Amino acid sequence: MRRLVLIAIPYLWLLALFLVPFLIVLKISLSDIALARPPYMPQLDLSAGWEGLKSFFSELDFENFVFLTTDDLYWKAYLSSLKIAVVSTFLTLLVGYPVAYAMARAPEEWRPTLLMLVILPFWTSFLIRVYSWMGILSNEGVLNQLLMWLGIIDTPLQIMNTTTAVYIGVVYTYLPFMILPIYSALEKLDGSLLEAAEDLGCSRLEAFWLVTWPLSRNGIIAGCFLVFIPTIGEFVIPSLLGGSDTLMIGKVLWEEFFSNRDWPVASAVAVVLLLILIIPIVLFQRNEQKQREAEG
Amino acid sequence: MRRFSWFNTVSLTLGFAFLYLPMVLLVFYSFNESRLVTVWAGFSTKWYGELLRDEAFLDAAWVTVKVAVFSSTLATILGTMAAYVLVRAGRFHGRTLFSGMIYAPLVMPEVITGLSLLLLFIGINLDRGVFTIVLAHTTFSMCYVSVVVSSRLTTFDRSLEEAALDLGCSPFEAFRLVTLPIIAPAVISGWLLAFTLSLDDLVIASFTTGPSATTLPIKIFSAVRLGVSPQINALSTIMIAIVTVGVITASILSKRAAVAQRRDEQAAIRAE
Questions:
Q1: Residue A40, beta-bridge partner list
Q2: Which residue out of A1, A14, A281 would a mutagenesis test of the B interface target, given it has the greatest number of B Cβ atoms within 10 Å?
């Protein structure tokens, strides 16, 4: 009895506030837009019972999904989100790997401090961390002032409100997600393996490439997914740092909902976004599981 | 004795400069006299004064703290229960769905979570405000709590609980006297995580709030949408200061607790 209550409380909570809302999104994505409150015409009327269900399936037309394929904006936004996520994941790896490597090679008594310095930004507001770049990248910002003072450029560079600014924002905010899994993989690495490789005639670079890199692969994969998955649906970074030509699907969904008040299309955008995310999420889960099995 | 090689020194310096310089600049320019945030015009604390006189910011801060306290506490209770169910309840009908619902919100884009909850609240005609934000925040942060707590529960020595049961404890007493003290650090860090997630959230709060409640992130977002604002720099500085003090205190306390525990263990071994 007690066990049942214990299971039921969190179960019902998640059913009511996670699964049901998602089913509502699915339902509205199949509805028609209407000038009413709420601004959509339900196509699925459960109160009409079996008849309602039958008429729903006979009139099912996926028109909002068809609309997503006919208007350029949506598939361009999906593609551009994917591209931005891929490029920024790669850039984050490029910046994060050397830092994680250096942390794992640091003297042991330094490591807790270094680890805390990587985790500290986690606890600081995401919004503020993104905002901090606005003062640096704007036309009269710190970076342009510095470059002009050094005489490298004469006119300010337009970085703010471009996709470059979005890349910088993503790399900056998600860097700890990349560093931590790679660090934990590298920290476990047995130093004698490297010595063995060098004894057997590898150069340090070869030893890195043949030993360290493959053994940190799980950390790299985990880090890449942890950056890639949230970046696809990112809203704050493109709307603060990106320009009007930076298309990202999270921003499109937001505007579709709040500015155009087109709920059915916003819901269809959400459903497609989730379908796109399912593949990387499943791959990520499988990687985690493999790692757990390898350790346990 | 290992030392820093030049390559490692360079990557650490550059990496941490990249992580911390933007925040240092933010703090630096919050003391700028000029409204033009990036042109230095002398030291001043006037933006802090203006911030503290701004009722709208104070209201938003109060709403944010209220939401964070309620939602993180609820999330900790529900998340700990969920973790217990996941690790201990064994097989039951719908277990796969349950664990799916625990892990899915962790990877769900915030825009989708926000949109779906808003559509639910409208569907059941719930007045949107503090209450609906609390419901929304509780739902996603309980999943984080349950991940943190369940990782502690899986490494836990079950024979301790069994010993308590053998010695005549009821299952609830065994939980309260044995399990809870052992998983307490994970429960506390789960609460802290839920609290910060709630303080930090812009997207889900924007979807699920109504005209009556504005949280700090919503306020900050609308203020900085069009450009840098010195008041927001001042606000950010205050928030960064609170977080830094909090994290450093927490790490000192946990280090002390670890030292004390090691001492106790050694004393126990010597006593044997």
A1: A33
A2: A14
